[in-house]
Each structure stands twice: as structure tokens, then as C-alpha cells.
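ARCHIVE CARD
Drawer: 12
Card no.: 0347
Subject: one protein chain, sequence and derived structure
Cross-reference: see card 0346
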Amino acid sequence: MATTLSQKNYLGYGLGDFGQNILFQSSIIYLGKFYTDIIGIDPAWIAGLFLLARLWDGINDPLMGFLAQRTQSKWGSYRPYLLWAAFPLALSMFLLFYVPEFLEGYKYAYVAISYLFFSMAFTAFNVPYGTLTAVMSPDYHERGKLTGYRMTFAMLGGIVGATLILPTVNAFGGGREAYAWTGALFGIIILLTSIGSFMTVREKARITIQNGASFLKGFDVLKKNRPFWLLSLCFAACFAAYAVFATSIPYYCQYVLGNEDLASWILLALTGITALGIPFWASLSPKIGKRMIFLIGALGYILAYIGLYLLPSLPPSLIYPLMVIHGIGNAAAVYTSWAILPDTIEYGQWKGGERVEGLSYGIYGFCFKAGLGLGGALALSWLDSSGYVAGAEQTAAVKDSLSQLVSLIPMGLIIIAAIALWFYPIDSKMHRRIREELGKEVL
């Protein structure tokens, strides 16, 4: 099938994830350390907040997907949310890193409210944005290409969020106020990229409202969709592994490697290789399939984590080759995490007679955010239980815990993810059969 999307559509869609991932990466990597070391909040309390937010996402994400699927506007069902959610999403970036000193006595309440606001704003943008993959094109391989653009831009945004936050904070003079200015600056970037994406993407004309498909009926359709749940389990575990690693790496660099600034360079190597690797995996997808791409990438993850566990007894410079291997695996996971999902939606329509893409993306979004929340909470709880004291010389127990948090724990989660996707049944041959039998019902 000939490509029906223009280069502008591909680039515009990718632009939306560029801004999202500045917020995503900065919140995953630096927010915990900002709260513990700059604001002075207990790590165990932050872990509880992360879990509370993810429990709310369990309600919020599916409802957002259900609402978006039933939205009718001149711009479509999902595209308008790229505009409507752009402003609260950008504002949330600022509020996350701005904790007013005059609210010192209420800082726990402020942090909880601002973090929950961020979670809701992210959902309002992310769920409709992700669903666009399913309605911008009906073609199996074109969706893969669209996802390739999206994930490449996502990693470029991830590079900004992972590597430029600390240098920007330092450029503003460091400390509490510098984080606030940094949040404001990057919030403006997020606003511009979100509006730019809205202006350049288009939904393919189709009926987006499923007449008679109630919220409960949508759940009933999904309940029978085994590939969807295997995929959701896989990437909940995968994102949990990333959250454990990313949350822990700033602490690991400061207290184990003895250089806090090293975190930016390590993350630059990881996200840079990931960005370069995504187009490679996207080009390989038609030849070996999306499932096999993830399984090969999982092997890269495991090799990197074994190396990180052995790193204290190896030359420290080996951390960069390990990040290259990690990035290759990460590229495979990032690409397949969203490239596979539209295929499971059509599988569910094939088996259940209803197309519930909005609800599917909402629940899938909850699963990956639940993985992120559980991973971040696990890292902070593990750190707290080892006796971590912010800014102090850490004990051997804390350093051992940090070594485990960047190696063995995420490796175990990746193994769970690989087992789940090993049993995933949809390949290009089955997808062709699904589309042939659905015929015009697909789009």
C-alpha cells in the first residue's frame, strides 16, 4: 500500500512527543532528587505519592480514552486535545519544579496537588495523542513508520529532558529558584511543540463514535483481547524497569561514582543511542516483525544490566559502552511499545465486534504509567529502607542498594516483559487476515 501520509504529517506527529518527553524524562529522572535533596521531602512519602497518582490514573486514563473517542469536532475526535491540553501540560512543567518558599509549611500538600495536576494534564494530552496512530493510517507498516518518527522525536525530547535540565539549572545559578526558572523555560517549549503538532496532524476520515458501545461494553471487548493484555503487561514491566533505573541514576552518579554531573553524560549516551536506534529498528520491522525486534532488544537490556552490576570491579569508563548496549535495547522497546498497540485494537474488533481504540489507549496508558509509578516508588522506597540521608556521606548499604537499582532490579523486570511478549501472537500474516476479514469496518 502506498504511503498516504505526507512528510509534514510524520514530522508534526513526532513533534508532539518531543515536548511530552521533555516533561516525561525530567519528571522521571530529576523530580525525585529535586524533592528529596532540594525541597527536603521524605523519599518514602514521595513513593506513596507516585503510587497514589498511578491509582488515580487507573480511573482517569480509561475515562479520557472513552471521552476522546466520543468527542466530535471539526478537527476530529483526538486531534483537538493536542490544542486543549497544551496549556495545562506546559503549566504542569513549571509547577512541578516551582515549590514556593512561602508555602514551606504546606509543601507536602503543594507537591501532592501539583504532581496530581501534572498527571491529569499529561493524560489529557497523551491518551488522545497516542490514539492518533490508529486513525491517521490503516496500514500495518505505515503505522510502524509513523511510530518510528514519533519515537525518534520522543528520544530527542528525552535528550533535552535528561541532559539539559541540570546544566540549565546551573546556568540560572542553582538551587530552588533556578529549578523554577528551568521549569518555566521548558514549559514554553512544551507549549510550542504541542500546538505545532496540533497544526500539522490529521485524522483519516472515519466514524469515530461506536454507536451503542458503552463504557462497560468496551471493557467486555478488551477482556477477550489476549494480545492487548500481554502487550500491556510487557510494557508495564518495561517502563517500571526504566523508572527504577532513571530515578536511581542521579543518586548513583553522585554517591557511587562520585560525580553528580556524570548523570547528564550517561543519560545523553543512553538517549542518543536510543534516538539513533529507533529508525534502524523501524526499517527492520517489515523484515523480522515487531515482536522479534523487542525480544532482541531485551537481550541488549540484560547484557547492559549485567555489565552495570559488575561495573564496580571493572574500569569505570566501561559505563559508556554499556549505555550504548542499553540504548540499542531501549530503542527496540520504545519503538515496539507503541507500534504494536494499533494491531491489538483491530484484533479486539475482529474478536469482539467493537472497535474501542480510545478506551484501549487509555488503559494501555494507565498500564505504562502504572509501571513508571511503581518503578519510581520502588526505587525511592528501596533507597529509603537502605538508610539514605540526603546530602550526607552514604553508607556501604546505600551504595550497594544503588548498584542493585541500576542493574539487577530493572533486569528482573525486563525478563518479565520478554516472557510476556514471547507469547504475543499477532504478526504481519495474522494482521493481514484480520484486515481482510474486517474489510471496511477497520477504517
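Annotation on reverse: Residues 290 and 340 are 7 Å apart (CA to CA). The radius of gyration is 21 Å.
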